[in-house]
Design brief:
InterPro entries: cNMP-bd_dom (IPR000595), cNMP-bd_dom_sf (IPR018490), RmlC-like_jellyroll (IPR014710). The chain is an alpha+beta fold and 230 residues long. Helices cover 39% and strands 23% of the residues.
C-alpha cells in the first residue's frame, strides 16, 4: 500500500504573509482603514479580544501556540505561529471545541477588525490574492493532517512528517522548531514509540540528527519506508 505524504506545516515555514507584495505606505493605509489596536501578552497568557469573532490577529513579535480546547478541559495542539503570521481567521464554531491561542513568549499582537478588513479586499487585488492563498494554505493544512492520521504505522507516520517538512521548507536539512512534547502530541505517539521508530529510521539512513532540532533527511529512503505495506 502506498501512502500519499502530508505537507504538515506545524513545524515548517510560516504561511503566506497577508502583506507580501504590498508597499509600506499601502499597508499603513489599509491598517488605518480597518481600526486596529495592539496588545502585548506575557508568556503563558491566553490571547483573545473582547469579541474574538470580530478580529483577525497579526503577530508582530513573539511566538504563539494554537490548540483546540475541548469541553472536557483537554487541549489538542495544532501548530505554532511565528512573527509575521495572521491567525484567528476561523472562529472554530464548526468544531466540537474552541480555538485557543497562547503566548509561548512575550508576544505583541495587532488586532484587525475583520468586517472592515474583508470590506477593503476588493480595493487591493494583491491583498485579496494573499488572503485567498492564506485560506488555501489552511485548507491544505487540514487535509494533510487527515492524511497524516490516516497512517496507522508509526514509522511511516514519522516518514510522512519529515517528507512533508522537506517539501514545506524546500530543504533536506530540516529545522523542527517544536518542543518534543508538542511534536509527540501532533504525531499522536508516546515518547517511547517515537524514539524507537526514529532510531530505526536513523539506523536505516533515512534521518540523521545533525544538531539541536535539525535533521538531515534522505528522500529516497523515506519514500521507500512510506511505500511499504505496514
Amino acid at each position: 500500500m502506498t501512502h500519499q505524504c502530508c505537507l504538515y506545516p506545524c513545524a515548517g515555514k510560516r504561511s503566506t504573509s497577508f502583506w507580501a507584495g504590498l508597499e509600506a505606505d499601502e499597508i499603513a493605509g489599509i491598517l488605518q482603514q480597518v481600526s486596529t489596536f495592539t496588545r502585548t501578552f506575557s508568556q503563558g497568557v491566553s490571547i483573545e479580544s473582547d469579541n474574538e469573532d470580530d478580529y483577525l490577529m497579526y503577530l508582530l513579535e513573539g511566538h504563539v501556540s494554537v490548540s483546540v480546547a475541548l469541553e472536557n478541559g483537554k487541549f489538542i495542539p495544532l501548530r505554532h505561529i511565528h512573527t509575521g503570521e495572521v491567525f484567528g481567521v476561523s472562529s472554530g464554531s464548526e468544531i466540537n471545541g474552541t480555538l485557543a491561542f497562547s503566548a509561548e513568549s512575550i508576544s505583541t499582537v495587532q488586532f484587525i477588525h475583520k468586517p472592515l478588513f474583508l470590506g477593503v479586499l476588493t480595493e487591493h487585488p494583491q491583498l485579496l490574492a494573499n488572503y485567498l492563498a492564506f485560506m488555501n494554505h489552511r485548507i491544505s493544512y487540514l487535509l494533510n493532517k487527515v492524511i497524516l492520521f490516516s497512517i496507522q504505522n508509526n514509522r511511516q507516520r514519522i516518514a510522512c512528517f519529515f517528507l512533508g517538512e522537506m517539501k514545506q521548507q524546500q530543504e533536506n536539512l530540516l529545522t523542527v522548531d517544536l518542543s518534543k512534547t508538542c511534536l509527540l502530541e501532533c504525531l499522536g505517539m508516546s515518547r517511547s514509540s517515537f524514539y524507537r521508530e526514529l532510531n530505526a529510521l536513523t539506523a536505516a539512513g533515512a534521518i540523521h540528527p545533525v544538531g539541536r532540532k535539525q535533521y538531515q533527511c534522505n528522500t529516497a529512503i523515506l519514500n521507500e519506508v512510506l511505500s511499504r505495506d505496514p
